[in-house]
Amino acid sequence: MLKVSWDERYILPLPEKHRFPMEKYDLLPKQLLYEGTIVEENIFSPRRATVDEVLACHTIEYLEKLQTLSLDKNEIRRTGFPLTRELVERELLILGGTISCADYALENKVSMNIAGGTHHAYSDRGEGFCLLNDQAVAAMHLIKNSLAKRVLIVDLDVHQGNGTAQIFEKNPAVFTLSMHGASNYPMKKESSDLDIPLPDGIQDAEYLSLMEYHIKETMDTFQPDFIFYQSGVDVLATDKLGRLSLTREGCKERDRFVLSLAKEYDLPIVCSMGGGYSEHIKDIVEAHSNTYRLAQEIFF
Question: What sequence ranges are listed for the domain Histone deacetylase (predicted)?
Answer without folding.
Answer: 18-288
